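#random but structural
TW: two for the price of one
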Amino acid sequence: MTTTEAKPLLKAVENPADIDNGKNDLIAPTIYALYTAALIYIIYQLRDAIVASTLGSFALSFVTGALIWDNLIISIGSFFFKDIDTNPKKYQILKWLSYPRFTFHAVGVPLQCITVAEMGKFAGVGFLQSNIVQIGIMVAAVALAIADRVKFAKSPGIEQTIWDKPPFGALERDLVKFGYVEPDFAYVIPAIILALSNLLVGIAALKAGAEPEVAKWMIFAGLSALIGNALPGNINTFTGNLGEAGMQFGLLEAARIVYGGM
């Protein structure tokens, strides 16, 4: 190896986040643009599906809207903000556009447990027939959302995600987005609770037998979120958001029955 050849290699080892993965830069942001389009379709369908307006139906629409913003900003950032390392103005613009990604998502996800509770009640799940239980779930969801944002307010905030750990050929290296300065498992807990709630309430509803279609779509929603976020490695960057879109689609189909026939 010549000295000329050795210098770029040394630079790559010293700055692994700067290595070109060899893939077309448009592939990764296009994937997120497709997720955005799918979620726009879902929220458009929700507009017609929801006849009976409740706190649960509002939460379902709110979370879908939050996920649209989440995927849209990642897509836009990766298409048009490639140079934020050298452009402080673009860096600040994308950072401020990214704050709602975390806030809307964090507030909405616990509230969607109310949606799950209402659907479970409609589908004949025994313990969810109690008004006290329904109110308790509402209070717990709101408390969890507030606690999450209080924790975030006390944290260092968000910063540009540096891709220094994935393999050099990882597709996610073409994404330009922000993440938590101090990632904490506590931020993921509401999403895990929501996915498991969908799955478990769906199974209970299937056993109840009153509304099997609602039950099946809730199980689909829970499995989509769990599997999408459980896949390993750099693929999780893409399958996690796909799983969330799958969850919202499953709940849309359940909502056609629950909120269209209340």
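TW: number two ↓
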Amino acid sequence: MEGYVDCHCHISAEEFDKDLDEVITRAKEAGISAIIAVAEFPPEAPKILSLSQKYKGFIFPCLGVHPVQAEPPDSQRSVTFEDLGQVEPDIIDNVEKLVGIGEVGLDFTPFYVKSDYDKDVQRQVFARQIDLAKKFDLPVNVHSRSAGRPVIQLLKEQGATKVLLHAFDGKVSVAMQGVQSGYFFSVPPSIVRSEQKQKLVKAIPLDNLMLETDSPALGPVKLERNEPMNIRISCEHIARIKGVSMETVMQATTQNALKLFPKIKQLIVK
């Protein structure tokens, strides 16, 4: 399989509703061969599954519940067991179509987490989704904002081996614990404006790196809509830091993606 794999993308976000066909066209023109679509909120599941059928062989779905949930009209809160209860049946009913479980994880940003109880619920919701991933032999696509160390600790405690840590914002020393466990780390285009991401890429072996955009977030320009075609920016920056060609980075990260998400190849064949 040639081309880039965007390993973590919110292609179902409403920011893409008006021009999704054009976004997909630009992604393909930029050399992307596959987009892994992740869910944050239970109501997204049908849309993500629908997009994976509309763009069959190009968009590949993950389902899960994010540690931070939207609260109408425009506020956010920490995840609850009820949120998990809404999405779990969608995961089980559609497991044959899924390439992973995500976006799951922990987010201990003080604005969202008001108490130790919130943290404990997040841990239990995350642990349950790790269990589902292990049961169905799927990788987890993981969020870890302000929670790098506890995320890696919980993943190891739960015996998770198939792990992608997206846009990891923790210390290099903590990330290396993940590397030692065989975990992968994906790098968004925001690396151009993040010294922390640059340090991370310098330290983590290419064998443990993947590319992502996290579109519509984490683009090269803050507060501007990001889209999958910007994957080349991630690749270019990794190549520069590692002192290798973009082709080398593309091939390595794509092989890593196919190693962690092998169902991509199976679903393309079908």
